[in-house]
Automatic annotation (TrEMBL):
Pfam families: Aminotran_1_2 (PF00155). PROSITE patterns: AA_TRANSFER_CLASS_2. Keywords: Pyridoxal phosphate, Transferase. Residues 45-393 form the Aminotransferase class I/classII large domain. Signal peptide: none annotated. Its cofactor is pyridoxal 5'-phosphate. This is 8-amino-7-oxononanoate synthase. Belongs to the class-II pyridoxal-phosphate-dependent aminotransferase family. InterPro entries: Aminotrans_II_pyridoxalP_BS, Aminotransferase_I/II_large, AON_synthase_class-II, PyrdxlP-dep_Trfase, PyrdxlP-dep_Trfase_major, PyrdxlP-dep_Trfase_small. Pathway: Lipid metabolism.
């Protein structure tokens, strides 16, 4: 018999194995000051590329004013209790109506948190006789939602429609045998590698297969589409998305989330979403603040235009300097790295310490094994000066990459500290 704690000590997990080396610097770093393009890290100013504040609303004066007034009037915890018990307000319903209209759905329902909301949405949509088919690169909240499913599930190769079709054939057979249905899940934007999900091509398969489609559009909402309504609007197939999900933690610069669908489906879901039925209602400052954020998203198209101006400047500049951004066709800017995890962290440390550029190093299990990337998130708040400083820094480290500088530094570090990590 094995002691649970002993097992955990011997195998702390794919990220936990780096704790002694990385904690406080690469993992759980402390950023200080107002959220924005420039923050403080370990006592010095850095250009910050790791916030998902796409539209720069975190410190927008109208947003700060709305949040402050709501907090002053209602406090930070009103309403107390779950929506179904004592947490319903007219403001919650107003935000739901406006969100539904914005994403072209009949109805919407607010969720107190995005991660738990997605897990619970999947759980509420399917029964044990149903089959889930989902993209292999799906976010952890989708994976965890699928884990709760007591029925069959299949993964298809990332953004591979032929693989999806093959798995839909398998799913159809199982669903027919069990008397169930099929739920396909993808993302509007895959938040680490930056590709849009192939929603239009997936919707086209509805003519051949009987399934419902759930789209997690956390990174697409506010950034894609003519109005900012997301990847479905961008691809011209919003009406074919059966359940649309997005979080407020990106473009809306807050917390919470929402789902949108046909009115009867939302009515059923709000009575069956365990993460909402048994948890506290979204707080009033975030609801009233959400109304202000949505107003700005609808009425200030110049904010999204500025975001994309910055995206193009940064991404084109990185490509011109020899960096591989993969197949990103969104604001997410992944700089694909070759080599080891330690080598990537040494490069990142060089950027932070010698150039004042803060980026995040992303490894397994956040992305598939064998991949390493630096992820940059341009926002509407970044200036030309900050973009140019960043490009100059990447140009300098590119020369070091080509010369093998970081490989040599890695070897020195391994010899000095006898560091041993499992392959990532």
């Amino acid at each position: 018999m094995t002691d649970i704690f002993q097992r955990l000590r011997e195998n702390p997990g794919p990220l936990g194995q780096f704790a002694d080396y990385a904690e406080g610097y690469f993992v759980f770093p402390k950023l200080e000051g107002p959220i924005g393009p420039r923050m403080r890290f370990q006592g010095r100013e850095v250009i910050f590329w790791s916030a998902n504040d796409y539209l720069g609303l975190c410190n927008h004066p109208e947003v700060l004013e709305a949040d402050a007034k709501a907090a002053a009037e209602y406090g930070m915890f009103y309403p107390m209790g779950a929506r179904a018990m004592s947490g319903e307000t007219e403001q919650h319903q107003q935000l739901e109506r406006e969100l539904a209209e914005f994403v072209d759905k009949e109805a919407a329902y607010l969720l107190n948190f995005g991660y738990q909301g997605m897990v619970s949405t999947i759980d509420a949509l399917v029964g044990r006789h149903d089959v889930i088919v989902y993209d292999s690169d799906s976010h952890a909240c989708i994976v965890d939602g699928v884990r709760l499913h007591m029925g069959k599930s299949f993964t298809y190769k990332h953004n591979d429609i032929a693989s999806l079709e093959k798995n839909l054939v398998r799913a159809t057979k199982v669903a027919e045998e069990q008397g169930g249905g099929i739920l396909v899940i993808t993302e509007g934007v895959f938040g680490m590698r930056g590709m849009q999900g192939k929603i239009k091509e997936i919707c086209d398969l509805k003519s051949k297969f009987n399934f419902r489609l759930l789209v997690d559009d956390a990174h697409g909402f506010g950034t894609l589409g003519k109005t900012g309504a997301g990847a479905g609007e961008e691809q011209g197939c919003q009406d074919q998305i059966d359940v649309y999900f997005s979080t407020f933690a990106k473009s809306m610069a807050g917390f919470g989330a929402f789902i949108a669908a046909d009115a009867d489906i939302i009515r059923i879901l709000k009575y069956n979403l365990r993460s909402q039925v048994f948890a506290k209602s979204l707080t009033m400052p975030m609801v009233i603040g959400g109304l202000k954020r949505l107003e700005l998203l609808r009425s200030r198209p110049e904010i999204k235009a500025k975001l994309w101006e910055n995206v193009h400047k940064l991404q084109n500049g990185l490509k011109e300097r020899g960096f591989n951004l993969g197949n990103s066709n969104t604001c997410v800017t992944p700089v694909m790295m070759e080599g080891s995890t330690v080598e990537a962290t040494l490069l990142s440390r060089d950027l932070r310490e010698n150039f004042g550029i803060f980026t995040s190093v992303v490894i397994y299990p956040v992305i598939p094994k064998g991949m390493i990337l630096l992820r940059l998130i341009p926002t509407a708040s970044h200036t030309d000066s900050e973009i140019n400083e960043t490009l100059a820094a990447f140009e300098a480290i590119h020369e070091k990459l080509v010369s093998g500088f970081y490989k040599k530094e890695e070897q020195k570090l391994l010899e000095e500290q006898n560091l041993q990590f499992k392959s990532s």
